Amino acid sequence: LDFSVVLFGYRSDFTNTLVVGKKPSPSQQQLMDLAKIAMNAGENNLLDGVNASHVYQSVMGVFLEAGFGEHFPHHAGHGLGLSHPEAPFIVPGSDEILVAGDVITLEPGLYVPNVGGLRIERNYLITESGFECLTHHDISLI
Questions:
Q1: CB 10, CB 83: distance < 8 Å
Q2: pLDDT per position as a tens digit, 60-98
Q3: CA angle (58 as vertex; 52, 59 as ends), nearest 5
């Protein structure tokens, strides 16, 4: 489920994945575990002055190391504000720099044939000392 709330014109964007009708399979749980590790790797690079492509590479690196890189076909996140999406775009080759005051998402996802598709997402405020997580929903397969 991908949600967006607009408050005073400013947008949020958060995602969680559900398994309907049965418990998650071990393969589905593996994808969730990898997505959480990738999100954590991205969070470790959410710093004022960091290039957005570096954040992307930290997320993708987790998937590549686990042998799932080909199953992550999209961006690792993007900016939020008065529109959706907006800069900075967390994509390979980006020359955009994170700056204190940016509000961004991280949204790692994997899409594996015969297993399923999964994406998680949180919103962050980039600060002078790192980041503040703005969304606090539980990220788990339900």
A1: no
A2: 999 999 999 999 999 999 999 887 789 999 999 999 999
A3: 95
CATH topology of domain 14-91+105-133: Creatine Amidinohydrolase (3.90.230)
pLDDT per residue over 98-109, tens digit each? 999 999 999 999
Q: Which residues of 36-54 are buried (b: 16+ CB within 10 A; e: fewer)?
A: ebbbebbbebbbbebbbbe
Domain spans, the chain: 14-91+105-133
- Whether a cis peptide bond, with omega within 30° of 0, leads into 113 is no
Q: Where are the beta strands (DSSP E) in the chain?
A: 2-3, 6-7, 10-11, 14-15, 77-79, 86-90, 103-106, 109-112, 116-119, 122-127, 130-133
Query: Whole-angstrom Cα distance, residue 123 to residue 74?
Result: 17
* Cα angle: 86, vertex 62, 15; to 5 degrees: 45
What pTM was estimated for this model as a whole? 0.93
DSSP state of 33: H
